[in-house]
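Sorry to interrupt, but I need a hand with the structure work. Could you write out one complete protein record for me, on any chain you like? Just paste the record in under my message, thanks.

. . .
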Amino acid sequence: MSDFSGFEGSYLGDRSRLADATRLECKICWWIYDPAQGDPVWQIAAGTPFSRLPDHWRCPNCDGDAEQFMVLDD
């Protein structure tokens, strides 16, 4: 994860830096956004990359802001 600076796992709010298959984890409640599964709570279709989530999207578990998510190093 050497191409990300700041705190470990941060994408620094720049969604364009994320690959389409990148999984991210909420640093507040540890809920994982997996593009392969989407988000049924927000009616986000499976296959939707994190970078294409709507600007108003928030963690479906704790209501944390999208910028609170950290890149998972699979």
Observations:
- The chain has one domain: 1-74.
- Residues 1-6 have pLDDT under 50 and may be disordered.
- DSSP finds no helices and three strands in the chain.
